[in-house]
């Protein structure tokens, strides 16, 4: 995401002042993933080495391609400036001469892709930067590690498929609790069955209860109980959960006496629990007990730097090295909004590996239709009007006639090199396919 800044900075276009200083980083995500590079001063990217330069091994980039620099003054932001590159610099698919960057912006120079990230600097300085982990995810996991040794409940909030169970597992393993991590989805059971699942029951407590059962609070003794989809817990069972949290005691269904339990509870939801309290669907006292320590896990759309490392990981799960991924495919993956988060990405990676087959190269054509179509629509929305009349047959004839030389094709068709490149990208045409030898 970018704000237009092709002219001078004005108050209307400049970012708003921020309350707390932020950590700004640029992370290369294609052709491989690097450690996030802090943007504490001006940084020039291109093929030319030198002090303050990030040297790129990409023949389609210029010697000095673009610059990112922190903005000094009231605002806490980063500005990107194209340095007269031949092939242009693109932010979220649109060519820019200069732009203020917003967190999550995907930058393309030649066949190299970067993601700009910014997070508030924690009071403790925050975690060390890690290769292949986005800043938003890194800081969410850092907060989880800080809360792990505490006995208090933790509420993990994030969209479905974002990885809340992973956070629960981290909270457990980093807590040094000797017991097990036991989980249950609160949306799976009705009120009576959920009470039995959590607190246990005595024999004969209800129809079908032939033998006694301890329940998950007892099974997780000394460990962690993960209550997924806590917002779906029936109201009538919430007082018993509140008592278990406050007193460390549970009453099995049908029993006369309570049992002491030693359990750390981690709850998770994709819903707004505060709104559920206001609507009368969730107890305010239970919400207050759970929300004392919250870990907010952003969805994949808010952390695009995680997309390519995860895609490579999922692509190699069947064994062997991850496939080669074209720059166009990487851009489509990184800029896609991933409404179903990590689960959707995992399915996309598996399908793309199957679609690519023995070629071991994942291009746009191997990606799921939703990803491809979103990419094409994004390019079409940012294309210059004069790009559109260039159809596939015209371009392919010109490429064959000029041996894949895009500059010669542009001159022959009365277009700029960049107009031709944009149209080639839109149609998934690779000029290299038309070069002799």
Topology overview:
Layout: E1 2-4, E2 22-30, E3 37-38, E4 43-46, E5 53-55, E6 66-71, E7 77-82, E8 89-91, E9 94-96, E10 98-101, E11 106-109, E12 112-120, H1 135-147, E13 154-157, H2 164-173, E14 181-185, H3 191-199, H4 216-219, E15 224-228, H5 238-247, E16 249-250, E17 259-260, E18 264-269, H6 273-278, H7 284-290, E19 294-296, H8 307-315, E20 324-325, H9 327-335, H10 341-356, E21 361-362, H11 369-382, H12 392-401, H13 406-413, H14 417-426
Parallel strand pairs: 4-5, 13-18, 13-19, 14-15, 15-18, 20-21
Antiparallel strand pairs: 1-10, 2-3, 2-12, 4-6, 6-7, 7-10, 8-9, 8-11, 11-12, 16-17
Helix pairs in contact: 1-2, 8-10, 9-11, 12-13, 13-14
The average pLDDT value, as a whole number, equals: 88
Low-confidence stretches: 3-13
The CATH class of the largest domain turns out to be Alpha Beta
Kindly identify the CATH topology of the largest domain.
Answer: Rossmann fold
Description:
By secondary structure, this protein is α/β, with parallel strands linked by helices. It folds into 4 domains: 2-120, Tumour Suppressor Smad4 (Sandwich); 135-296, P-loop containing nucleotide triphosphate hydrolases (Rossmann fold); 303-368, Orthogonal Bundle (Helicase, Ruva Protein, domain 3); 383-437. Helices cover 31% and strands 20% of the residues. The chain has 14 helices and 21 strands. It has helices at 135-147, 164-173, 191-199, 216-219, 238-247, 273-278, 284-290, 307-315, 327-335, 341-356, 369-382, 392-401, 406-413, 417-426, and strands spanning 2-4, 22-30, 37-38, 43-46, 53-55, 66-71, 77-82, 89-91, 94-96, 98-101, 106-109, 112-120, 154-157, 181-185, 224-228, 249-250, 259-260, 264-269, 294-296, 324-325, 361-362. It has a 6-stranded mixed sheet, with no helix packed on it. A hairpin with a 6-residue loop joins β2 (22-30) and β3. α8 (307-315) crosses α10 and α12 (392-401) packs across α13. Mean pLDDT is 88; it is low at 3-13.
